[in-house]
Amino acid sequence: MNNIEVPLFKWVSPTTIEFQLLPGVGTGIPIDVSTRGGKRSAVNLGFSYEFPEVLSVEPPYALTGSFETSFTIRGTGFGTSMGDLESLSVGGQQCGSTEWVSTNKMYCNDVKSSEWLSRSASVTVGGQLSPANALFEGIGDPRIVTISPQLAEAN
């Protein structure tokens, strides 16, 4: 699988082999089978690991401003090491730096808070982008919409 020999497998029938996959990431991973006699199957590109998914963002909101913010991202399928992580963003802003903790947890640090472009936190691992979500809210500058009453008596 992907040029990695799978040492443990179970022969089930002439058309079926079972084996346990090693942890990993990616999509379109090539799989082929070779026999002791040197015969080799055609390469199959149909295997993909489960895509990453963001399940929570802490804190779930941030103010707009001229400062940087940090977040804890929790979810599934974040890979097996920092090297698997391709990108991480919150509110449409790329993380200035990231720290991979586990397949279920990452830190997104030094995010510029000048503008929040979306309500989503997204991660790309092994060429797979997490689905969109609405786990984050960027809080913009306050603005006055109406003033009522517009005229008051002076005492």
Description:
A hairpin with a 2-residue loop joins strand 12 (121-125) and strand 13 (128-129). The mean pLDDT is 88. It is built from no helices and 14 strands. The protein is mainly beta and 155 residues long. Strands 5-7-11-10 form a four-stranded antiparallel β-sheet, with no helix packed on it. Strands 9-8-12-13 form a four-stranded antiparallel β-sheet, with no helix packed on it. A two-stranded antiparallel ribbon has the order 1-2. The chain has two domains: 9-47, no CATH class; 53-139, Immunoglobulins (Immunoglobulin-like), CATH 2.60.40.10.
Name its key features.
155 residues, mainly beta, Immunoglobulin-like, 4-stranded antiparallel beta sheet
- Count all strands and give the number: 14
Work out the oligomeric state of the chains in this entry: single chain
Low-pLDDT sequence parts: none
Radius of gyration from CA coordinates: 24 Å
* Order of secondary-structure elements: EEEEEEEEEEEEEE
> What is the architecture of the largest domain at the second tier of CATH?
Sandwich
Query: Which term fits the overall shape?
Result: rod-shaped
Mean pLDDT across all amino acids: 88
CATH-defined superfamily of the largest domain: Immunoglobulins
CATH fold label of the largest domain = Immunoglobulin-like
Helix content: under 10%
Q: Output the strand order for the largest sheet.
A: 5-7-11-10
The number of domains: 2
CATH top level of the largest domain is Mainly Beta
Main pleated sheet? 4 strands, antiparallel
Structural class: mainly beta
Question: Gap between N and C termini, in Å?
Answer: 85 Å
Helix tally equals 0
Strand content: 35-45%
